[in-house]
Amino acid sequence: MSMRRIIKALDLDLPTSEKMILVLLSDNANDETGECWPSQNYLAKRSGMSRQNVNLVINNLQKKGHVSIEHRFKDKAQKSNMYCVLPLSADTTPPVGSDDTESVIESIHIGDANIWGVWASIAGEKSRGILGKCIKDHGEVEVAKAIGIVLLKKPADPVPYLRGVLNNGKKRRKGFQA
User: Fold this and answer.
1) Cα dihedral 37/42/48/53 (nearest 10)
2) What is the pLDDT of residue 121?
3) For residue range 96-117, what is the model confidence (pLDDT) as tens digits?
4) For residues 85 and 36, what is the distance between their CA atoms, to the nearest angstrom?
């Protein structure tokens, strides 16, 4: 899901049907590349439109430059198309790189601040149990990196955002490491 593309799609001045399909495509899009490949039947079911109407709307979005389409085939049979949604403009927030998180991680360990204090300042004192479980599951270094991303992105609700960042990496610790 590409929240940046969904937000941009919602801000565009488009007819309702085009905006709906663009939001659904953005919901399926890779955050960095904008690529997705939902079937037209899936888009029709989710949008409440007919498959033919979805096809017309996608073609209109392509003509307006909001979507590019790559028709895909396997063994001479057509598979779902690959769509590339909305090239992001320079004024949007770029994805957080590892260099960015390293500087934030260093600031977490400076002075009297520690990972617990930083997390409490972001999510509140009652969220310490969540942090403990995350450290147990992913390790302190990975959690510190994830907190760095949370600090950079400043989401409205940091707890699910932290979990999403940690689970996106799919790295899980096995056993206790001191």
Assistant:
1) 60
2) 83
3) 555 555 555 454 444 445 778 8
4) 8
Q: pLDDT tens digits for 130-139?
A: 888 888 888 8
Query: What are the boundaries of each domain within the chain?
Result: 3-85, 98-169
Beta bridge partners of 83: 36, 69
For domain 3-85, which architecture applies?
Orthogonal Bundle (1.10)
Q: Which candidate, 99, 86, 111, places its Cα nearest to that of 148? A: 99
Query: How many CA atoms, within 13 angstroms, populate the side-chain half-sphere of residue 152?
Result: 21
133 Rama sector, left if φ>0, alpha if ψ -120 to 50, beta otherwise: alpha
Residue 144 CB contacts under 8 Å (≥ 6 apart), including other chains: 105, 108, 109, 115
Structure tokens at 47: 């949008």
CA angle 100, 101, 107 (to 5 degrees): 105
- Give the pTM: 0.50
Query: CA-to-CA distance for 5 and 1, rounded, in angstroms?
Result: 9
Q: Which residue has the tokens 């002075």?
A: 111
Burial call 49-72: b when 16+ CB within 10 Å, e when fewer: beeebbbebbebbeeeebbeeeee
Return the structure tokens found at 56. 């017309």
